[in-house]
Amino acid sequence: MNRHPGGEAQTLYLLENIKWKKEMKALDLGAGEGDTIRILKSLGMDAHGVDLFPRGSDVETGDFLHLQYPSDSIDLCISQCAFFVSRDQKNALSECWRVLKKGGFLLLSDLDTGNLSEMAEQTGFTILRQEDQTLLWREYYLEAIWNDSFCCEEYKILQKEYKGKKLRYTMVVGRKE
Predict the structure, then answer these.
(1) What is the mean pLDDT of residues 141-155?
(2) What gap in Å lies between CA 120 and CA 16, rounded to an integer?
(3) What pLDDT does 159 receive?
(4) Percentage of the chain exceeding pLDDT 70
(5) Secondary structure (3-state) at 149
(6) What share of the chain is helix, strand, coil (3-state, %, to 5)?
(7) d(CA 169, CA 132)
(8) For 7-31, how does the pLDDT look when each residue is reduced to its tens digit (9 = 90+)?
(9) Beta strand pairing status for 168-176 and 100-112?
(10) How far apart are CA 81 and CA 153, in angstroms?
(11) What is the CA radius of gyration of the chain?
């Protein structure tokens, strides 16, 4: 597989699971360097992104646990490798629900202790697709460790907190009905 969590191929793979349209208003949560934002813009979407510590010019400073966007204003929320690091996936899902318009989509790929889809359903999302991508994530993580990548610093902190617990990497595609 030539794709990794958070990469361009993964973003396009997530989008394959919905009927997206040009001019959709999209929001990348935990946008980092803004790679996903640039991909969404290249497809004709009105894309924005927030991150506590933005590392790209397309990314606004913001907390996806407390979004500064009005309710029912976004067509697509996307997040890759970020909700878990927030340590409050339930609140992150609730914020997505709040800002998404009726019929809006949630595209999520993230670390999962086993109940990510269930939390999304409890928030009110209809789950259109769920996929275990653990093997894909492990390959990416090992490569990141090998290359001493910046992204792994966040996970070193979490390793202590989740030591001994089974973690998976899950893709969830949902819709606000």
Answers:
(1) 55
(2) 20
(3) 62
(4) 81
(5) coil
(6) 35, 30, 35
(7) 6
(8) 788 899 999 999 999 999 999 999 9
(9) antiparallel
(10) 13
(11) 15
